[in-house]
Amino acid sequence: MPLNVPFPSHITKYPVTFDIFTQKYTPVSLTARFFEDDMGYKEEPIKVYADLVDAFKFNRAETLQGTDIKDEWSSEQAVKQFKSFVERGKKRDLVPAWWTPEHEAELYRVAKDDAELRVERSYNWEERRKRVKPTSKENDETRLGMIAEKVFFDEGVVMDPRDYSGPQYEAIGMY
Hints:
two-stranded antiparallel sheet, mainly alpha, globular, 5 helices
């Protein structure tokens, strides 16, 4: 039987895997491990904090793009939404195995008080580039987008490519 299954661009703009037996696509972000020990994250937890904050802000910028909604909110609103983002991510194994309540407390302190990483500020590629020194903007923003996708994608969804009316990537009405 020849495979004639269209690419599910309605599911995600990021990489997917395809199971030839079930004929279903799954976004790679749902199974990806973003903060592995051998990548230096355990020694420098600030890298995890920066990626989580920037993924949150990048997703907000992507969500608001093309709308009339201004990217303005109070520190309290931003931190509340960010905490929801992190809690949802924890349920989906986004944070590393070595994550502790102390790391989480420091993440929230950074998200609220750090001059560059405060969550109420808009996403800024130039600031991130100076801090993180990624290989390319495209690769880095794909990573941030996939982190946010892991948080916001409908839980347990494996899309059937023939069902174009199924659930899609959505930002749960946060903005």
